[in-house]
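[agent] plan:
  1. take the single chain provided in the ticket
  2. run structure prediction with default settings
  3. attach C-alpha cells to the ticket
  4. add a short note for the reviewer (M.T.)
[agent] executing step 1
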Amino acid sequence: MWNFIKVKGGVIVRTEESWTGDQIETDPATAITYLAPGLDAWLADLKAAAEARS
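[agent] step 2 finished; step 3 output follows
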C-alpha cells in the first residue's frame, strides 16, 4: 500500500509491504535480491518526477 500525505512544503510517501507466501518464506534472501531493487527504482523515479515539478 502506498500512502501519500500532504504536509507543509511537500508530500510524505510511506509504503506498507507484506512479503508472504511460499516463495518468499522458502528463500527470503533471493526474494529480497530481486524485489528490493524494483522498489528502490520506483521510489527513485517518484522522487525525480516530484522534484522536476518543483
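[agent] step 4 note for reviewer: The beta strands are 2-7, 10-15.
[agent] ticket updated
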